[in-house]
Design goal:
Helix content: under 10%
Number of helices: 0
CATH class: Mainly Beta
Number of strands: 12
Shape: globular
Distance between the termini: 34 Å
CATH architecture: Beta Barrel
Low-confidence stretches: none
Radius of gyration: 13 Å
């Protein structure tokens, strides 16, 4: 399933589907890299050359140019990061939820 949210930085556009996070060159349409993550990926967010996505296992921070993982923040099994992360002043905000409860996280600095 395609997530409708995208992020754009320089000459790359990023989006998530069931095959992971894709980075597509806006000039050629060629996939530059793909990052496989667990199902349920949120929309991507980008800040200072790092792209952030939430998935069923946590938040992934990737180098926006190469797709290399910079860091990973796990969440409890049985819940999911369902909203695109928001980045402000070096802090990554996201919500994870299960069937009955939602939690707000602020990580960084």
């Amino acid at each position: 399933m395609l997530n409708k949210d995208i992020a754009v930085s320089k000459s790359l556009v990023y989006f998530c589907d069931d095959n992971g996070l894709h980075a597509i060159d806006t000039l050629t349409g060629i996939e530059k890299w793909r990052y496989n993550c667990l199902n349920g990926a949120s929309g991507p967010s980008i800040s200072s050359g790092i792209i952030y996505i939430g998935s069923s296992d946590g938040i992934h921070a990737l180098d926006a140019t190469t797709g290399d993982e910079k860091w990973f923040f796990p969440v409890n099994y049985g819940s999911c990061v369902f909203s695109a992360p928001v980045i402000a002043d070096g802090i990554v905000y996201f919500i994870r939820a299960d069937n009955t409860t939602a939690w707000l996280y602020a990580i960084g600095k």
